[in-house]
Predict the structure.
Amino acid sequence: MPTVSDQPLQCAIFCAIVDNFGDIGVCWRLARQLAREHGARVTLWVDDTAQADRFLASQNLSIEALAPGSVAIRVWSAQGTADRQGLDEATASDLLIEAFACHLPQPLLEAMGRAERLPVWVNLEYLSAEPWVEEHHLLASLVPLPGATAGSQPVRKTFFFPGFTPGTGGLLREAGLLQRHAHWQHDATAGRDRLLRRWQPQAADALTPDTVLVSLFSYETPAMAGWLQAMANDEVPSLLLLPQGRSLAGVAQFLGQSLRVGGLVTRGALQVLPIPFVSQDVYDEILSLCDFNCVRGEDSFVRAQWAARPLLWHIYPQEGRTHLQKLEAFLQLQKRQTSSCDALQAASGLALGQFMRFWNQGEDCGELWHHLRPQLSGLRERAGKWQQHLAAMPDLATSLLRFCRSQSR
Ligand code: TRH
């Protein structure tokens, strides 16, 4: 049985980087919070150092420069870890997190089979608002370890689901995050000015009080052109912040020209400002200061909810269009939870839901945007209520540690 003493909690997180930055983005955020707020010694095991390096560079970090005693980043593969010591350390941890069902390497399972004391072993699942998540959260499977001594019992691996309701593990939310948003939003005009001057003073100078500030971090979709055209045709100006990534090609195609960071492009009432891929902390500030955020995958989607601003979720496309069910589950849950909103806010919530369905099915959203854009202030209030509702639940890192302690003696 695992034990957790007064010593700092030792935690190993195994992350397989499938694509993009979502897997490492979530694991890094969790690792950092466990270390900073809970004093844990965390090793984040990644299977792709090149991608990890790229991600850390975007966070102005490098593997070598990580503060000793907080989070260490090391490499694993299906063959195990670089040396035996790595396997021993992971086996000796108090909490072993297998992120997104990444399948621990066989040599580690064998080392666990030989160990006298085992960590609390958790499979951290993907985020979903589907109702079955509550039923599956904290279910365990019994895993027979290879090479375990005769008569030894299979080991419990617990499925830990992030989620939006108290019956789940909650969402990643570090201490002070909501206060930071409140601070940024307190004087949003000055904040926007400061933010834009980082990349293009001209964009800051052109900003008017009625400019709709939008951020776009999506996957490729044919829905994009109609939305951009609607902003270009609108009677109020929009400024689109476009971080480097997969949205770029679609916007460039719409504009009919190549784009470079800091190069402001104007089409009618729409201005487009390509910006660098910034650190997670600066990205939070962008989400906070924009009137509307298009986000994707898992982590940016969660961060936009903490920013309490209306969002468009470009959900990670899955085979068999199961992602559309996930989108619907989220929309329905949000509708139920914000039922105390007044009739206007409720109606604007429905319009936003429709916009997300169209976007995720690659349909033209232009007309919908004309209808939606004037409702942004009502949607903002609704997003604020949703943020408060979510913040009343324990955050994911705290829930994980509570679970770990409940399993220890
Ligand atoms: O990158 P994503 O699409 O990630 C994922 C992965 O594709 C994964 O395989 C899939 O399973 C999952 O989605 C559902 O989107 P996500 O989750 O939003 O991750 C992006 C990360 O990048 C997030 O941590 C925020 C961060 N980010 C920055 O640090 N700077 C930036 O400028 C931007 C735009 C994002």
Q: What stands out?
A: The chain has two domains: 10-171+394-406, 177-391. The longest helix spans residues 343-360. Residues 18-23, 25, 58, 217, 243, 277-280, 283, 296-300, 316 surround 2'-deoxy-thymidine-beta-L-rhamnose (CB under 6 Å).
